Amino acid sequence: MHIVLITGISGSGKSVALNVLEDAGYYCVDNLPPALLNSLVSTLREEGTELLAVAVDARSAESLAGLPQDVGRLKTAGHDVKVMFLTATTHSLVARFSETRRSHPLSHELRPGQNPAARRTLIECISEERERLSAIEKLGHVIDTSELSASKLRGWIKEIVAIERAPLTLFFESFAFKLGVPLDADFVFDVRALPNPYYDLALRPLTGRDAPVIAFLDAQPAAAELLTDIRDFIEKWLPSFKTDNRSYLTVAVGCTGGQHRSVYMAERLAQYFGPSERVVLRHREQP
């Protein structure tokens, strides 16, 4: 059975991800207590279900601790299990809850001896949720949705689910430092030291995927040198991550606006590693 387990911080897009999977033909279950995961899989397998997506959140606090063992047992039993952990900055989450006017799931919980009139604030709920989920954050692929639109998140989820089983998948992601470093990055490389095409009025409206910008940066010795350094670093350490049984490795490349230099560098890295590795390329600030 192909199983996708979706977890993460409330407001980070778990419902969006679950809807994508439902549209793709997955049998979807929201807010399942982890203790029921194995019995659900057994029941659906007997019924002939091949695609299952399950969302788990912090409300199942008592059984969250056993989730890593549950995932391990499912993999040992031969199931293809992918885990996606969605997160976002506290600032982004507060803004989203304010826009939707929905309450946080943990806001309805009362701490021992607490006066019902003194419930947790939104910030306290988010902090408590992060603490509860910290032990399972590294079970799978972490996706930072802070600067992602719902449509872009849907596209990323489709990419991840489409990846067939492989020893390791390399994600190359461009981003803008002025909008924050991606929380899901394993490595972050800063390419702001390179000459900036933004200051050429003819290149300003273009991106690092356009031929004039590519030609501009290809002509910069510093760009070639930095590309070689990053490429050599990844090549040196990639075998270690493979032997550590990692499924994903996210390499984030940032410049000021996430439009020219970081896009160019992420594209070049994906081109280099594409023939020999499973590679996914994404540009956070681009449509």
From TrEMBL:
Keyword GTP-binding applies: yes
The residues that hold GTP are: D57, A58, R59, S60
- Specify the superkingdom: Bacteria
Carries keyword Secreted? Answer: no
Q: Which Pfam families match?
A: PapZ_C (PF22740), RapZ-like_N (PF03668)
Q: Which residues bind ATP?
A: G8, I9, S10, G11, S12, G13, K14, S15
Q: Which residues form the RapZ-like N-terminal domain?
A: 1-161
Which HAMAP family does the entry mention? RapZ_like
Protein name per its UniProtKB record: RNase adapter RapZ
Q: Which organism is it from?
A: Janthinobacterium fluminis
